Amino acid sequence: MANSDVRLALWSGNNFSVRRILFRRGGVAVRDLGAFRFNNVLSSFRLRNVVQSSQVTLVLFSQINFQGSFRVFRGSQNVANLSNFNFNNVTSSLILVGRNLTNSEISQIQSTGRPPQDVLVIRQ
């Protein structure tokens, strides 16, 4: 399954520094990063699909429950400073899957507040 190949490391500091949270699988939806004491502190991340590098999507939302403004990252990548995306220290919820979510799927998630099926939902 593609989700088992996904890796995500989140950091509270720029350039992959300070506090880190690791996800070793995809198929995760975090409704409120406050559950990890990580609300509004995300500054950098490393995103990977170790088998198919293009098959991974991370969506960061500025409000809990997948609401507010958002940024989409598709494919394996390192982002050393979310300021470059005008999204430093604003992430309150996220969705991570081992495939490419379409813009339409992301709009549906935001309008319904429901993540894709077959993902683990983490609430506060």
From TrEMBL:
<dbReference type="InterPro" id="IPR011024">
    <property type="entry name" value="G_crystallin-like"/>
</dbReference>
<protein>
    <submittedName>
        <fullName>Uncharacterized protein</fullName>
    </submittedName>
</protein>
